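I would like you to sit down with the pair of lines that follows and say whether tokens and residues agree.
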Amino acid sequence: MSAGIRAEQFAVLVRDIPSSSEGYSTKQQVDSFFRQIYPETYYKSIVVTENKAVCKIYEELEDCKKKVARAEIIYGNSKEVNPEGVRPTHRTGLLGLIGKKVDSIEYYNKKITELTPKLEAAQKVTLKDKQQRSALVFFTNRVTAAAAAQSAHARMIDTWTVIDAPEPRQLLWTNLHKTFYEREVRQYVVYFIVFMTICFYMIPIGLISAFTTLPNLRKLLPFLKPILDITSVRTVLGAYLPQIALIVFLALLPKFLLFLSKAEGIPSQSHAERAASGKYFYFIVLNVFIGVTIGGTLFDSFKDIQKNPDSITQKLAASLPGNATFFLTFVALKFFVGYGLELSRIVPLIIFHLKRKFLCKTEGDVKEAWLPSDLGYATRIPNDMLILTITLCYSVIAPLILPFGAVYFGLGWLVFRNQVLKVYVPKYESYGKMWPHMHVRILAALLLFQATMLGYFGVKQFLYTPIIFPLPIMTIIFSFVCSKKFYRFFQSTALEVASQELKETPNMEIVYNSFIPPCMNADKVPEEQLNV
């Protein structure tokens, strides 16, 4: 809706380009195909290339430029003590600890002189011989780009796949060339791995919830008895040990899920984070919420259930209020410790000062070390959804959890409103695509709450339980209406919106150049210069 110029609004991503039967290059084929369909608004295209080799040279060159700048600053600072100065030196071997000792400024300047023509040669080879079957296509107005992204350009689903172009800064270049069938196969393989991960993690999380209680610690680790007999230690461990163990265990997972999401062939960073967020949500709900609830019950009552299998529902209903204590302290730990660390930002502050003391030599290094991260949607959203699910489901069993949930989200609104506006720096703009992702999971949490309420009231033989039966049906109907009425607009830009006037005429050459990878164009134009 903004009148500002955004490069991605004038471009589409084209994948699954078929091989040319007439001997055309990929670029000639793309230009011919789209110029024929959009003769008045087609601008030009960038063919995706395999950039691994050229990126390696580019990164080495940039690293040398940074190091020579640091060396010159060190040399300049040494002149304040000694007018002649002391030229910095280093060793050329592993980590600068072994190998021949050389003058740093001369060495890195020589490397820059060698790498510059090497990079230019690698760029030419890449453009000529390493073209992939995908491209970025540019149009002179937003309406054509929005319409093209929503249109079928071929009769076969596995050729000429056209979608909205992501922002230049969040393109995952290594995924763009993957074919339709490769993406489909990868997606199902990743889903299977995630399923196996959920099953694998269910075992240790169930064991954590069972073994980290004080009575079990006394049995399993008798040498801890003298420590556990200290009242203050026993109180702290009894309240927080299972929760801390669970939080540490869960912290290992998000990076792995983000790696799997990127392995699906997803074209953008924001889409990969949404996919990882969805996997993480289902993982923590199935493992933390359901796993801890059922695991704790089965461990404590395994012998009784073995003697009388029919008593499992009664045992589960009787143990749920006891599990509520675990989740109540889990929520309390999240907002007491989590929000305190979030506001104080002690860990990033310590890391910054360590970097500034030992690593930063230039102003650019200091700015880079100080730059805050983004919000971290891939983990932040699933964790909030987990707290929502726990609060809703246990509100029937132990209503005392409701004020803790209210404090968590109330404080969270205040804390993260400040952090988002004044601290975090967004790494991308995805035009609100995270909201339907969250909305679906809020409704999933609501359905789980209603199912839990029905089951708990049924086991307790509550007389008016049948009155609640319409609630899940109403939730499903509401979810269906929302998906049909609203979700399409988040997936594709409405032409009504795309047709709104811009405050300036876009400079298409700058729009085009903003998508060229840095390793293919060292003089890449910053995105802020688009409004020309």
Summary: Residues 55 and 519 are 5 Å apart (CA to CA). The chain has two domains: 1-178+493-524, 268-492. Strands lie at 11-15, 42-49, 89-91, 101-103, 131-139, 161-164.
